[in-house]
Design a protein that fits this description.
The protein is an all-alpha fold and 116 residues long. Helix content is 65%, strand content 0%. The chain folds into 2 domains: 84 residues, Orthogonal Bundle (434 Repressor (Amino-terminal Domain)), CATH 1.10.260.40; 30 residues. The protein is built from 6 helices and no strands. Helix 1 packs across helix 3 and helix 2 packs across helix 3. The longest helix has 27 residues.
Amino acid sequence: MPVYKYKSLGDLIRNERKNKGLTQLKLADLIGTDNSHISKWERDENYPSDKYIPKLANTLSIPEEVLERQIKQDKWGFAIAAEEPAISYSEKSDIIKNLEAIQQIIKITIDKLKQG
């Protein structure tokens, strides 16, 4: 599955629509809605209803799970059951280093407490 890295559902829809060479009006026609809905989705003012997710996914060649995950991330502020991490590799590496440092501090503290 390709990795989609956008800050919001609106960015995802807008960029993938443009990559397909579609206007908002054409996309709306293809999925059976009004272009004002597309505009609101792209400005993150609203989200597509469940009825439009399969049509939108198919038209933009985006897996439905990606759209659904992005909606949850936008609404709740964090990634839910994402296959790819919501953080970059370098951020993950920094977190691991910090956790290892914390483990060392805990180990040293426990050893000192055992010594009295």
